Give the backbone structure.
Amino acid sequence: MAPESLASSNPFKNSRNRKVLACLEGNWQAEMEGYSTYLALADRETDAVRAQVLRHLAAAELEHAQLWATRIAELGGPEPRYTGHPHGAADTLASRAGGPLMALRRLEIEESRHIANYGTQLKDLGDEGSIAILNHVIEDEKAHFQELSALLRGRSHTAPGKRHVIDAQSLLEELLSKRNRGRKQAGSWIGDAIYGVNDGLGAIFGIVSGVSGATAGNGKYVLLAGLAGMIASALSMGSGAYLAAKSEREIYEAEVAREREAIAMNPSEARELLSLYYQVKGLPEEDAQHVVEHLAADQEMMLKALASERLSTSEDGLKVPWVSATSGALSTAVGATIPILPFFFITGTEAIVAAAIISLLAHFAVGAAKSLITVRSWWSSGFEMTAVGAVEGAVTYAIGLWLGHLGA
């Protein structure tokens, strides 16, 4: 057996090797999950270019896994066995509900996390053979991050080592919309719905808790207060969302009109202004001027680009008022209904306990659902929301008891 084997008689070395092997096993599992995820997404991808890139990334992840497996064997460790899902993270609710672009965005974030994790291992691992692999893998992961970024921004992909060819239209859209703005996503409505449910649930849970404390769970009063609060919250949320979206659109249109007039009156100044915006972002002066000249060839495109920089958004990034109103009102009503459901069937202490249980479970579910748009772990987000709901319910219930005592 090799000198590095776990069979060494040195207890300190055995302990160190066990820690190294545990770390390498985690790396192997992560690379295999990445391989499975990329491969599954590639099989489902309808865009031929994106599918090719995803298969290339899957092959690279498999190569990394093989490097870790070889090193594990050199250290005398057992052959690793993949314990994850056959499709990796491709079948998670976040990946499916958010659509292809959201899945790519999450993969981009995961690649950055892998780079950070491997960077930490460079300092802590203390195994020369593993460090050599880490240096190689980190460079690959950086390249993967760049490839995913290119896909998200609409750039075409070429074989490794060759120069990327940028689609001019895609680059223009990137400049107009900015990163993660002005681009409609399949999962964008999910965020509005989740926060609407959260607002309705939190507000009415507080009302139900307070009234229950004041009336000892009298179903008539709790239902009356809960239903009135639900209607008021839903109407308030819906009208507020509508007015906010409408005002945002009106402000944007007014600013665009001003920019149109400014471009017509002094086009050279407008070009200089847009060039300076791009230079502040890091483009060399010559490149910025080149981009601006291309945009200036089409007055409407020039207008959209300048308005995007001035207002930090684009027309595509504006919400539709009636969609915001409907989503906000309905989701708030759904969330607000949950705490009052038990009082339709039971009353007294039994109803209070039942309302508390289902409300806290709903808080956890809403918190877990937030991971679809926040990329946090579902359990962490769920427990955080549950804790907030528990504190809110306890405080309002105590206040209700106090007010009930005063009125007795």
Q: What stands out?
A: Residues 1-12, 155-187 have pLDDT under 50 and may be disordered. The chain has two domains: 11-166, 188-407. The two ends are 83 Å apart (CA to CA).
